[in-house]
Amino acid sequence: MSGPLLRAENLRVGFPDGGTWVYPVRGVSFEIGPGEIVGLVGESGSGKTLTALSCSRLVGPPARVSADALGLGDVDLLRASEETLRALRGRRIAMIPQDPLTSLHPSLTIGAQINDALADHGVPRGERRRRVLEVMERVGLPDPPGTLRRYPHELSGGTRQRAIIGLALANAPSLLIADEPTTALDAMIQAQILHLLADLRASWQMSILLISHNLAVVAGVCDRLLVMYAGRIVESGPTAHVLAEPMHPYTRALLDAVPRLESTRRPHGIPGAPPTPWNRPPGCAYHPRCGYRVERCQGEDPPGAPVRPGRLAACWVSQAQGALPVIGTVSPRGASAEPAHRSPGPTADPLFEVTGVTRHFTVGPAWKREVIHALDDVNLRVHRGESLGIVGESGSGKSTLVRLLALLDRPTRGRISYAGEDLAQLRGARLLRFRRRVQIVFQDPYSSLDPRYTVADTIREALVTHRICPPGEEGAHIREVLDKVGLSTHFAGRYPHELSGGQRQRVCIARALAVRPEVLLADEPVSALDVSIQAQILELFEQLRRQERLTLVVVAHDLALIRQVSDRVVTLYLGKVVEEARADVYAVRPRHPYTFALSRSVPSVDRVGELPPVLVRAEPPSAARPPAGCRFHTRCFNAQPRCSRDEPPLDGDDGHRCACFYPVADAQYASLAPPAVDARAGR
Amino acid sequence: MSAPRAWLRQPAATLVSGGVVAATVLLAIIGPALAPFNPERPTPRVLLPPSPAHIFGTDASGIDVFSVTLAAFRVDVVIALVSVGISLAAGVMLGAVAGYGFNGSRAAAWGSAIILRLLDLVQSIPVFILALALVGMFGQTVRNVVIAVAFVNLPVFARLTRAAVRSVEHREFVAASRALGVREAGILGSHVLPNSLDGTIAYASIAVGGAILLTAGLSFLGAGVRPPTPEWGAEIASGAGYIVTGQWWISVLPGLVLSGVVFSFALLGDAARAALERAGRHAVLPGEQPLTVPAGDERAPA
User: Among A194, A197, B196, B290, which residue has the least CB neighbours within 10 Å?
Assistant: First the structure.
């Protein structure tokens, strides 16, 4: 077959809205060739998922899909009958949905689900078992015959995502649509999944449409990029060209928002939020957030037009000039290439002292009780004025540690003190004083605000609990604290469901700041947000740190992000501290093989066409049965017999401590994975 | 969107059941005044079939069945509403205490276990037998029927509330308030309970129907409110023996009214639950966004 596999021309998706129609997707045109991987990038609400769903005609009433052309090979998707479409789905076009945790049938085994997918497309019974095993082998599911008999809840997140991909691949489709397939996963698993997608293309000539809000994720694997904003494609072209020289200000802003491990340049958020289909501004939908806007942008919506060969951009500025002028090294709004700000700097004055802290959870019914080793003998200090990052995979115990610091949970053994006071002894007024001094921001801004409380009610609760101001005078304080987190006063009366994710997280930060704390604990504060919004929140943290003299403890699984906000970083693995060092050391010279692997698994926008290496296979062992000796030895590329016997102590001077007998040697840095140069730093 | 348009968009079943429930409550207030005949005084016009004068006919004592049916609204519906009100209030309180962990307090765990075992005990006795026994022990007064009906309904409300509290308790806004230093009782009252009541309140409507049925059932067996108080169950019982001899109207017509009322309360409860789920969908389920909603991150301000 020659020509494109999938072709969409002027695709529109509309929803009825009180007599009129709104169009979340309005005139999208693109093609995907056989064996091509195309990235579809944009913030939440830009219409990416709807575009993808329309390609397999999965957008049902009341929505209406229309297009000048929408074809898969020789099939006209717009006119195909429901029966034709059903035969097509899975067989020729398959989807990987967003959430690996809820996309599998919870009460069928993995094998049964793949088997069903095969049966639906008429694979004879005798052949199915062989095909199931074949599929599982191909997506790299561990121990295929064993996994066959398992239920989704028995598998880890990464394994589940592989199973979902297996399900999608069962009938060898020619087009795979992957909707944020790695967003819910840790960096190391993400790298493995990206490799899997690349392999599928290489060995199967499969075409893939990869959807993501993060340019770094698509940079390594996609041939071409489509950048989507407010229901339209604003820029398209070959990945390397788009990333090296973006032709649309939005693409450039997305690029500047990505945190980079190797660079000290701060990521810059995109100011504001993307418009909804109901309140799209006239003219170019992006102009209110754009630093390049000219008068024409407010009146006329620019059509997508070729700026260079193979490059389309919907921007008056780049169409007129043939390029976007470079203003500074980042987008003009972001202003300068300021080096990472490191004030007010740590002092020798420890606020938190964590001594020999162990936290075990007992789970399961009496006859198969298990002890989960969430934390084992952790020692740690948090100094006044510093910003401490805690990094690790899911299940490393990092959230448990933060909950212990926030006194939302108590250690099984060991002692935590704050400013010399043992947390276990705090009662009454002293406990309340501690609560005021230490505040916490949670991961999920959707669940950390009471849906029945307005923004003002939420902040007022903090003010009233700690008698911050005389009764009746909360209004002024609420306005002040909203202003600090960059929200205007009219948000005070809103309910959480009227706010975007980034705005909700700002409200959570405002609630914490309202009591004027000394320490702000943040548990994965941005992992539920778009990259563009993540950078905004990180900027806010940095600004608060300077202005409010806050001590920060930030937990995240993303090392690039941790590096941007922290002075000092602690790596946790299966409940143990394995390395502790200054943040800049982490980028260039981590010593522990685990931290090294973690740092190399971060995808980078500067490494186009190059995937992060998979240095560590498989997934962490269960915290119910941590391996003897060094807990990392089962996955370690440097492991020796001794590692499975003895436990390495956390050694080193105050600047850099590492718990490893065979740390990463100098020679290994070059051979295992050369760090990427920051290609854009010189400009 | 204006209120009348929202009303008109409801499915027909909701409108009809809502209408019947509204009429039922109205009749509980003015029903006895509308009765064309005295529903308590016997007359010689016994066992007359339905006619324009007596549209439901008359019973063996010569009492107008329609008048009894109308007057009984006050007895049955009031008993049901009051008893469900009591069991709702008490059940929510017990369920909240049994469900909420008070941040891992040991005393709360014991309290919860004791409450749950007591509820088990109540629920292990068949509802009807339990109500019969209660009325039998304490006497056949309206007050005791109310208490009996409230008592047998209480465990369901307590369990519903407990389940909801247990799921809301683990949401992060609870931990956020705890980290702020808000007292546990305050968190329970101001954050956890308000977010736990949707299902319980929707069930209350269904329970009113059930309570009417139970009240009538007790009277049917002669254990409910005492004759000659006009009451559906008693009237149905008084006509039961005549069905075989052809005087069907004494039992069947009040029975149909009873069924219609119970059914409407149940339908309305379902509609209420669906409406609460719709209203609370984006607010209650964390991070979930239905694919068919065209907005991604942000919603248009209402």
Answer: B290
